[in-house]
């Protein structure tokens, strides 16, 4: 088995890890439990950060906008001060550090790859201030604990999470025949219902109609944040009966009797166990780990595992890894920029993220350049993880990631920025060679490409070396 | 319309041959036509950019957002003083405006609205490609799109091999690119290899690192590329910050700052396209306009009807093209917004038909699912 399996299903091997005698077993054994978060710094709760979110939007919308209505300069200044006070410019940086610390040091890196996968499957795209305050904790507190449960349980948690409800506007969806809908003349907002069908569960392959979307939206009415004057839209999620559409509903031919808040769990059960959903999500998993165009032979064993285990994510993950192992030598998979960066960081023990002491924040001045560094790199290589532009998240297809500038950005990172992230003890040529040997079958060929610079340890020399080896076909692609 | 033949003639090394045998006019019509779209994200306020000075209601509803020193267009409409270049081009019949127009979207979410302004569809997120990408594909114009942004904008998706320009903070050495290039072999590396080909064939000016926050430099480079007969035919710029809920101001407010950015880009394009400006159309795109009435923060809320700012030598004449809906309460959309009486997609469809030498009927079917979009080419553009 080639060493690239450790990058196919994880992030490669760090300098103090050695290849396992049984790589498949090594990978499969990482999926039964949820590894704890290793970041020694602050890990705020979703609820705490939502409170900060509330302070920020209230302070801006209800206070500053009114106070400085005639003076754009004073308004901007006051707004910047509020950003500092509420951590609006900080928490996303801290979340990136938590995330990258995890993928760098986790003893269960294969689990972490699935964590990234599910966070992107149930994507929160860039909207309002979700990236700043909520997407990180959502992935930690909603996605992660569900990864040892069933797919259905995962969908239930995600669908009623504050983050997803806010992201897809379900709080603005009123049953037209509900008490509040009639009083205020309001109606449904279909966004959340449509994405629950299209992106999260059955996909358009299920052939649902606009009427199905509407009916599902009816079922979902009432699942909203609790609004109040001070917290605005950042209150907890609850079920507001007065917004819920009365009467029976029919989705994909199944009738759901008028049953208030219990309707949602029933319809999610049916969607999450629908054969087309199982095929759709299994295909997506195979696409992520095996090939842009997975074949039925690749996907079917995953579907079988899904059916046999009633959607246990542990069993599904194991089946995916088994397939990835089986097809490792005959398929190629391109990795998006963030995973590439995580792999470089682990394989070459780069100095990211910043140490937790230095990530501490005083809420008195804006975050410094060092604190912003990792997030800045992610943005510059085109993959700021909480800022996908659409609710379908980041693409898993090579064709979406290969544009002139996106490739050049990787060349730039490896040849210019990366040398500054090499730890002082790791600047020797021998260190690079040992990392290559640890991770690549054709390490000798790779070494020959950088042999000209074997005596060089300056930033420039390191740039010449890393610039090449990080962008070779076998590194950009497994 | 013989697009294939036209492309063939441009592509071949037949210029000398042609100049001998063809009358001048056919040479002119062979000139490459450029379509430039500037996305104005956040909701551009058409009534700030092109205020209706002929209607006193506007002043009454926007006491704190009054524009002084408005540039004069005609008896009904003025122009925001920061949009100087449009005023200058107006004198030469090279600037025009479509007013009270929007995509057919009446929800007020940026998120949905921006998706729809790019896909051109009716239901948010349903389509995964952009109207411009589909228009290029339908016209068989491949590899001629240039995005001035790092991610490929949704607007351009749907046609392969687009280029983008948004240089990294530092220079990437050519020899590094060459060395990597030589290692890419085999069928499964074709895509990366061909993209590296694009990079290696770039003119020197595109290889130089610049500050990608400096829109001037980006616009300058885009102009250079568009000027080149064999260069891109379509360019997409992205501006945001039009969501001025507070301190929107008049001549000098937050909205004015954004309009100034548009003005800068168009100025640079105009100055640097040279003669190619005569064969260019520049159009703005936004998700919605803003409420007529100012809010408690002297800003405006999300609205409906907005305006399209247009510049370029392919415009028919200077005009404010509109079917003005009026500002009386009952004339407003839902009693609060300027209505939209022109589906802005009709303008974009017509612009594509001009720039891509395509039948607007054909494009309407291929790109906009046969939606009823009248052909406005005669009214707006030189044909």
Order of helical and strand elements of chain A: HHHHHHHHHHHHHEEEEHHHHHHHHHHHHH
Largest interface: A-B, 51 and 57 residues
Averaging pLDDT over every residue of chain A, what do you get?
Answer: 96
Kindly report the spatial arrangement of strands forming the biggest sheet of chain A: 1-2
- Portion of residues in beta strands of chain A equals under 5%
Class of secondary structure makeup of chain A:
mainly alpha
Helicity of chain B, in percent?
A: 25-40%
Tell me what you see in this structure.
The complex is a heterodimer of chains A (478) and B (383). Chain A is mainly alpha-helical. Chain A has a domain of 111 residues. Chain A is built from 26 helices and four strands. In chain A, the strands form two sheets. Chain A has a two-stranded antiparallel sheet. A two-stranded antiparallel sheet of chain A has the order 3-4. In chain A, strand 3 and strand 4 form a beta hairpin. The longest helix of chain A has 22 residues. Chain B is an alpha/beta fold and 383 residues long. Chain B has two domains: 309 residues, 3-Layer(aba) Sandwich (Alkaline Phosphatase, subunit A); 38 residues, no CATH class. Chain B is built from 16 helices and eleven strands. The radius of gyration of chain B is 21 Å and the shape is globular. Chains A and B meet through helix 3, helix 12, helix 21, helix 22 and helix 25 of A and helix 7, strand 6, helix 9 and helix 10 of B.
A few lines on this structure:
The complex is a heterodimer of chains A (about 475) and B (about 375). With about 475 residues, chain A is an all-alpha fold. Chain A is built from 26 helices and four strands.
List the helices and strands and how they pair.
The complex is a heterodimer of chains A (478) and B (383).
Chain A: H1 5-8, H2 23-28, H3 46-67, H4 72-86, H5 91-105, H6 109-121, H7 130-133, H8 135-143, H9 151-159, H10 162-167, H11 179-184, H12 191-200, H13 210-220, E1 223-225, E2 237-239, E3 249-251, E4 254-256, H14 262-272, H15 275-289, H16 296-308, H17 313-326, H18 337-347, H19 356-359, H20 369-380, H21 398-401, H22 404-417, H23 429-439, H24 443-449, H25 459-469, H26 473-476
Antiparallel strand pairs in A: 1-2, 3-4
Helix pairs in contact in A: 3-4, 5-18, 5-20, 9-14, 12-13, 15-16, 15-17, 16-17, 22-25, 23-24
Chain B: H1 3-11, H2 15-21, H3 24-30, E1 34-40, H4 46-49, H5 56-61, E2 71-72, E3 78-79, H6 84-91, E4 95-102, H7 110-119, H8 131-138, E5 145-147, E6 163-164, H9 174-183, H10 190-200, H11 204-207, H12 215-227, E7 234-239, H13 254-273, E8 280-286, E9 306-311, E10 320-322, E11 342-343, H14 344-355, H15 360-368, H16 377-380
Parallel strand pairs in B: 1-7, 1-8, 4-10, 4-11, 5-6, 5-7
Antiparallel strand pairs in B: 2-3, 4-9, 8-9
Helix pairs in contact in B: 8-15, 9-10, 12-13, 14-15
């Amino acid at each position: 088995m080639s060493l690239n399996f450790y990058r196919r299903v994880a992030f490669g091997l760090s300098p103090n890890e050695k290849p396992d005698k049984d790589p498949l077993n090594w990978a499969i054994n990482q999926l039964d439990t949820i590894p704890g978060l290793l970041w020694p710094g602050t890990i705020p709760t979703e609820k705490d950060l939502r409170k900060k979110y509330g302070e920020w939007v209230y302070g801006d919308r209800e206070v500053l906008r009114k106070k400085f209505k005639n003076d754009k300069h004073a308004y901007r200044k006051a707004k910047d001060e509020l950003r500092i006070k509420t951590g609006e410019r900080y928490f996303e940086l801290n979340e990136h550090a938590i995330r990258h610390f995890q993928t760098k040091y986790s003893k269960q890196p294969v689990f972490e790859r699935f964590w990234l996968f599910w966070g992107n499957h149930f994507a929160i795209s860039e909207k309002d201030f979700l990236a700043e305050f909520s997407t990180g904790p959502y992935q930690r507190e909603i996605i992660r604990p569900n990864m040892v449960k069933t797919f259905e349980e995962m969908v239930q948690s995600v669908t009623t999470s504050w983050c997803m409800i806010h992201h897809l506007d379900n709080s603005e969806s009123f049953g037209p025949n509900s008490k509040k809908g009639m009083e205020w003349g309001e109606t449904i907002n279909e966004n959340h219902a449509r994405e629950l069908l299209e992106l999260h569960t059955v996909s358009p392959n299920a052939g649902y109609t606009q009427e199905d979307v509407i009916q599902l939206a009816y079922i979902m009415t009432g699942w909203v944040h609790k609004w109040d004057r001070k917290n605005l839209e950042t209150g907890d999620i609850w079920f507001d009966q007065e917004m819920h559409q009365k009467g029976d509903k029919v989705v994909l031919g199944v009738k759901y009797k008028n049953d208030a808040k219990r309707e949602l769990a029933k319809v999610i059960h049916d969607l999450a166990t629908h054969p087309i959903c199982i095929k759709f999500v299994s295909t997506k998993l195979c696409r992520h780990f095996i090939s842009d165009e997975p074949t039925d032979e690749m996907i079917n064993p995953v579907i079988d595992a899904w059916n046999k285990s009633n959607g246990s994510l542990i069993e599904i993950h194991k089946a995916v890894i088994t397939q990835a192992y089986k097809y490792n030598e005959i398929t190629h998979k391109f990795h998006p920029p963030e995973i590439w960066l995580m792999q470089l960081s682990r394989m070459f023990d780069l100095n990211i993220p910043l140490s937790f002491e230095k990530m501490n924040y005083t809420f008195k001045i804006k975050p410094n350049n060092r604190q912003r560094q990792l997030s800045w790199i992610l943005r510059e290589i085109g993959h700021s993880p909480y800022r996908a532009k659409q609710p379908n998240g980041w693409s898993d297809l090579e064709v979406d990631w290969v544009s002139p500038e996106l490739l050049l950005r990787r060349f730039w990172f490896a040849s210019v920025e990366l040398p500054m992230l090499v730890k002082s003890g790791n600047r020797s040529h021998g260190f690079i060679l040992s990392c290559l040997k640890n991770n690549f079958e054709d390490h000798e060929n790779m070494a020959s490409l950088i042999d000209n610079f074997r005596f060089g340890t300056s930033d420039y020399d390191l740039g010449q070396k890393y610039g090449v080896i990080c962008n070779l076909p076998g590194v950009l692609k497994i | 319309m013989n697009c294939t033949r036209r492309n063939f003639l441009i592509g071949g090394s037949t210029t000398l041959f042609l100049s001998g045998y063809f009358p001048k006019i056919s040479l002119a019509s062979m000139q490459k036509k450029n379509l430039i779209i500037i996305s104005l994200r956040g909701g551009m306020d058409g009534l700030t950019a092109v205020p209706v000075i002929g209607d006193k209601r506007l002043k009454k509803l926007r006491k704190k957002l009054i524009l002084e020193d408005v540039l004069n267009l005609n008896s009904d409409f003025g122009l925001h003083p920061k949009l100087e270049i449009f005023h200058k081009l107006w004198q030469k019949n090279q600037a025009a405006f479509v007013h009270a127009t929007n995509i057919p979207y009446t929800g007020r979410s940026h998120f949905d609205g921006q998706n729809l302004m790019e896909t051109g569809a009716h239901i948010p997120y349903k389509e995964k490609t952009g109207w411009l990408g589909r228009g290029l594909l339908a016209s068989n114009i491949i590899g001629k799109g240039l995005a001035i942004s790092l991610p490929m904008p949704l607007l351009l998706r749907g046609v392969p091999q687009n280029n983008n320009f948004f240089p990294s903070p530092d220079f990437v050495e050519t020899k590094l690119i060459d060395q990597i290039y030589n290692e890419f072999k085999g069928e499964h590396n074709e895509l990366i290899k061909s993209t590296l080909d694009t990079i290696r064939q770039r003119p020197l000016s595109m290889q130089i690192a610049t500050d990608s926050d400096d829109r001037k430099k980006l616009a300058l480079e885009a102009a250079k590329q568009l000027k080149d007969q064999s260069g891109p035919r379509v360019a997409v710029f992205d501006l945001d910050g039009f969501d001025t809920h507070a301190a929107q101001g008049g001549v000098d407010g937050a909205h004015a700052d954004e309009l100034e950015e548009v003005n800068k880009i168009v100025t640079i394009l105009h100055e640097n396209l040279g003669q190619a400006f005569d064969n260019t159309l520049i159009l703005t795109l936004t998700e919605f306009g803003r409420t007529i009435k100012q809010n408690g923060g002297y800003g405006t809320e999300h609205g409906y009807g907005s305006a399209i700012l247009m510049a370029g030598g392919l415009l028919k004449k200077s005009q404010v093209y509109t079917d003005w809906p009026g500002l009386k309460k009952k004339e407003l959309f839902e009693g609060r917004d300027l209505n939209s009486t022109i589906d802005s997609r009709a303008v974009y469809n017509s612009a594509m038909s001009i720039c891509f030498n395509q039948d607007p009927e054909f494009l309407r079917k291929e790109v906009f699912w046969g939606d009823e979009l009248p052909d406005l080419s005669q009214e707006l553009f030189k044909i």
